[in-house]
Design brief:
By secondary structure, the chain is mainly alpha-helical. The chain is about 75% helix and about 5% strand. Among the domains are: about 100 residues, Serine Threonine Protein Phosphatase 5, Tetratricopeptide repeat; about 100 residues, Serine Threonine Protein Phosphatase 5, Tetratricopeptide repeat; about 120 residues; about 150 residues, 2-Layer Sandwich (Heat Shock Protein 90).
């Protein structure tokens, strides 16, 4: 996806543990309990049947929503007859839950309101809080997270007033999840930690594991993947201890997602498969649908469209079986996007339109707007720009209504693409401004640069068109003058001397040929100018594409560390008296890691920018390479010692090169830093030099992880954005090696890599002597 555009190429399903999730832990026992309760119904009095029927309704959530609905309605009928208000409120709540699971949100809200009214009449405070919680979940499922916060807060306040610590912890956790949906990471972590504190006090291991997973999700969102993985592993250990198979499945799923973010698709498939195996063993088809969908996304990433389609269809088949409208619409949407990629536009339209109709029925405005964006994408592929504009007009209206900024960004970007393709640069500029304004202020500089580029391009097009028109008019005018002059001469000669007709005719033929030659010459010049313009336009497009791909590398790495840095430093500044020692340590660690990552990224970015602008002033001189290496690596001693890595300077003391000192220092620092990152603890890094083919050959050798053969060609190419984690999960952006290539070539050198996967790598570069 482009850095500032949300690309709904597929929808990645996360395992969500709802209230009903605990039932799947004892899935086999549930059947026995159901049979026992059905027998009990025949012998108990009417007033006791209500509770049993509602319990049966709950037990059938995982097996048959139709049966669940039937038992809840039976309970409701009896409650009406005997005027049991408690039974009425519980039955209304059970019916609402069924509608909720079916995606019929309007009906669900109607029955939640009935349950709420009944519980208020009996002053059932715990029950009222429970209904508020269910309403909040409903709003959250529809993307109305601010509304969800309102109802979660109501439920929380009731639980606090009742000194109900268990539910208080639960609602704190739900609020944390909602803030995570709103990308408010600071608030999300704050509420998760409050919930974790209470859960540890109550020694609720299930809740503790769930919160470790949730906190891991926060760290994952701010790209602190090492911290996220640690929390996931902590949760995994608890779930193993408790033999909580659904919890294990959820963790395998989340770990798979982390590996998918790292583009380590083979590992992602392994963990998604583990999740799927558990769900199959539990006979939990809803969980199987999630796993199938996620496996499909990996194959989609790998370009295995047929495999992706196979797994999406498996997910769709299960969702249809359970009449899960949300799941069906998700699968149809993903399948439609696959067909766009493979060029089967007729099928793509059919699947996307089916998804749209289901979402309209569900009144899920977010998904509706997303469908319209995807239909617009299809129309753009078919170059049906008018049709695409109509879809985007509808999407924008809905997205503005629900404040779905990510969808607005995508829609504005599509309109920018359409008008650019139509050469309507003024309109393209207008929509790019809207696109840029919708992005975070961190990206304002990039957006302003691109807007300026569009303005310049638009104005340049106008100036060039006007100049071309003037040139052609001048040429035509000159030709007309020449023709008039020649005709005048002709007629004068004709009237003076008829005998000169033959000579004059010959002269006229010659003149006509000369004129045609001149016209042909001018036409050739125009063709040559047009060819140069086309070549320049192609080069500009390539440069713009390279720039866009470069910003796609840094956007995610720059934005989220800044969010973490600003959010957590604000918390330390405003609430340091309220925070515990562990919280202060946790927040400080995040700030330190984010600052360190930003410093390294911005340093490399500055050097890259200078090289692109041609503002690096080369000052080659005779350099003592051994001394330069010592200076360049002085700041790397600490990370090397931290991993017990030996840095060996094998460059002879009198070895000199003719190069720019700053460039050589930057290249050596980046290469040695990379080597430290990918070398195991206790390893060794050697830097050597020799004279070969009348130039200096410098090598940086490590005995670390090595690089797979298929990845070697990606190292120095910006369009691949190649970056992996180090041996201690150190982060990187892939920018350092790109910068090294730019600088070495600027200094008339070459750079390349040789590596044996699992044994280590050697990076070579040459310098003049």
């Amino acid at each position: 996806m482009q850095s500032l555009m949300v690309n709904y190429r597929y929808i990645l399903a996360f395992l969500i543990v709802l209230v009903l999730s605990q039932n799947s832990i004892v899935a086999q026992n549930n059947r026995q309990i159901i049979d026992s309760l059905v027998l009990e119904l025949k012998i108990v009095p009417e007033n006791e049947k209500i509770e049993i029927l509602n319990e049966l309704s709950k037990l059938y959530w995982n097996y048959s929503l139709d049966s669940s609905f039937y038992y809840a309605n039976e309970a409701l009928s009896i409650a009406h007859i005997i005027q049991d208000k408690v039974g009425l409120s519980n039955s209304y709540n059970r019916i609402a839950n069924v509608y909720f699971f079916q995606g019929q949100y309007e009906k669900a809200m109607e029955f939640y309101q009935k349950s709420l009214t009944a519980r208020k009449e009996t002053n059932d405070q715990v029950g009222i809080a429970n209904v508020y919680n269910n309403m909040a979940m409903l709003y959250s499922n529809q993307g109305e997270h601010e509304k969800a916060l309102e109802f979660y807060t109501k439920a929380l306040n009731i639980s606090i007033s009742l000194i109900d610590k268990f539910n208080t912890a639960s609602y704190y956790s739900s609020i944390g999840t909602t803030y995570l949906e709103l990308n408010n990471y600071k608030k999300s972590l704050e509420y998760y930690l409050k919930s974790l504190e209470i859960s540890k006090e109550l020694d609720e291991e299930e809740a503790i594991a769930s919160l470790y997973r949730s906190i891991g999700n926060v760290y994952s969102e701010i790209t602190s993947y090492e911290a996220a993985l640690n929390y996931y592993l902590d949760a995994l250990e608890i779930y193993k201890k408790l033999n909580n198979q659904p919890g294990l499945s959820a963790m395998y799923n989340n770990i798979g997602i982390i590996y998918q973010n790292f583009k380590e698709n083979d590992k992602a498939l392994v963990y998604f498969q583990k999740s799927l195996d558990i769900e199959i063993n539990l006979d939990n088809e809803a969980g199987q649908s999630t796993a199938y969908n996620n496996i499909g996304t990996v194959h989609d990433d790998l370009g295995n469209k047929s495999k992706a389609l196979e797994y999406y269809n498996k997910s769709l088949e299960i969702d249809k079986k359970f009449n899960s409208e949300e799941g069906i619409s998700t699968a149809l949407n993903n399948i439609g996007l696959i067909h766009i990629d493979i060029g089967d536009y007729k099928k793509a339209y059919s699947f996307l339109n089916q998804s749209l109709e289901i979402n309209k029925k569900r009144k899920d405005n977010f998904s509706i707007a997303n469908n319209y964006n995807n239909l617009a994408k299809l129309s753009i592929r078919q170059k049906k720009y008018t049709e695409a504009k109509n879809y985007l007009s509808t999407s924008i209206a809905i997205s503005q209504q629900i404040d779905a900024k990510e969808l607005l960004i995508e829609a504005y970007d599509f309109l920018y693409i359409i008008y650019s393709e139509e050469n309507n640069f003024q309109k393209a500029l207008e929509y790019f401004k809207l696109y840029a304004e919708m992005n975070d202020s961190i990206f304002s500089k990039e957006a302003n640069n691109r807007i300026a580029e569009m303005s310049i391009k638009y104005e340049t097009e106008n100036i060039e068109s006007e100049n071309e028109l003037l040139r052609k008019n001048n040429e035509i005018h000159l030709l007309q003058l020449k023709r008039q002059k020649n005709l005048q001469r002709y007629w004068i000669a004709f009237t003076i001397l008829i005998l000169a007709l033959t000579i004059l005719g010959f002269s006229q033929v010659r003149l006509k040929k000369k004129t045609n030659d001149l016209l042909e010459s001018k036409n050739n010049q125009l063709k040559d100018a047009n060819n140069r313009l086309s070549s320049s336009e192609k080069n500009l497009k390539e440069l713009n594409a390279t720039k866009d791909k470069f910003f796609s590398i840094i956007a995610h790495d720059l934005k989220n560390p800044f969010q973490a840095l600003l959010g957590f430093s604000e918390t330390l500044y405003t609430r340091h008296n309220e925070l515990s020692g562990n919280e202060i340590k946790e927040y400080s660690k995040i700030i330190y890691e984010s600052s360190q990552n930003l410093f390294n990224l911005l340093g490399n970015l500055l050097q890259w920018s200078k090289s692109q602008l041609g503002s690096i002033k080369m000052a080659p001189e005779k350099l003592n390479l051994s001394n330069i290496l010592e200076e360049a690596t002085s700041l790397l001693t600490l990370p090397a010692e931290k991993k017990n890595i030996k840095l060996r300077n094998n460059i002879p003391y009198n070895f000199t090169v003719f190069a720019d000192k700053h460039i050589v220092s930057t290249v050596l620092r980046n290469l040695v830093s990379n080597a430290i990152k990918f070398t195991n603890e206790g390893g060794e890094i050697s830097i050597s030099s020799e004279i070969k083919n009348n130039e200096a050959l410098i090598s940086v050798v490590d005995n670390g992880l090595g690089i797979k053969p298929e990845n070697l060609d990606k190292l120095f190419k910006i369009d691949y954005s190649y970056s992996t984690k180090g041996t201690n999960n150190e982060q990187g952006t892939g920018l350092g090696l790109i910068l090294c290539k730019e600088l070495v070539e600027e200094n008339n050198g070459k750079i390349w890599c040789e590596s044996t996967y699992g044994k280590g790598s050697t990076f070579y570069f040459t310098l003049p002597i």
